[in-house]
Amino acid sequence: MRLVLAPILGLTLFITLPALAEEPPKKADPHAHAHGGPESPYTLKEVMQALALAEQQIQVGLLTNNRLMVAEGAKAIAHHPRPKGGIEPYVKKPHDKLAETIQEMDKRVHGSAVSMFKSAKTASMLELQKLNDEMIRGCIQCHDLFRD
Ligand code: HEC
Known about the structure:
CATH architecture: Up-down Bundle
Order of helices and strands: HHHHH
Low-confidence stretches: 13-36
Strand content: under 5%
Bound molecules: heme C
CATH topology: Four Helix Bundle (Hemerythrin (Met), subunit A)
Helix content: 55-70%
């Protein structure tokens, strides 16, 4: 098991650490979002691939009762960097309320990620899995609307 997890963990850290370095400036609102912060140099694809890896870290954490992995994955998702130029320029599908809807989807994912991070030390794995389900639903809702 350890042999299988080591490369995943190594790769996860390799990819998520730069994302964590992109911490937004502290704001009064505890739910203040990285998107209010400065833009990163990363493309939307890079940000999304890092989100997917953070999600894998959460899933391995849930399956192995590893609260640290759940917390780290949730934190990486909650503080993901803002893509270079914002999301809008990458979206090819027409949508009449693009900016508004993107913000709403993103908030949903962010809210669940923050709750997961906050309860990672105490909630049961089943409760954490519920939050994970909610979060992934947010990811997929956005993809359903905006991905080709
Ligand atoms: C605000 C909308 C939005 C949310 C929320 C969102 N995504 Fe995405 N995602 C996109 C769009 C748009 C693309 C297509 C990007 C492209 O092809 O340039 C994408 C693409 C992806 C890809 C494919 C990247 C590739 O290599 O082509 C993955 C993986 C992904 N998202 C994971 C996630 C995960 C995991 C979450 C939730 C934690 C998430 N996304 C939440 C909009 C979103």
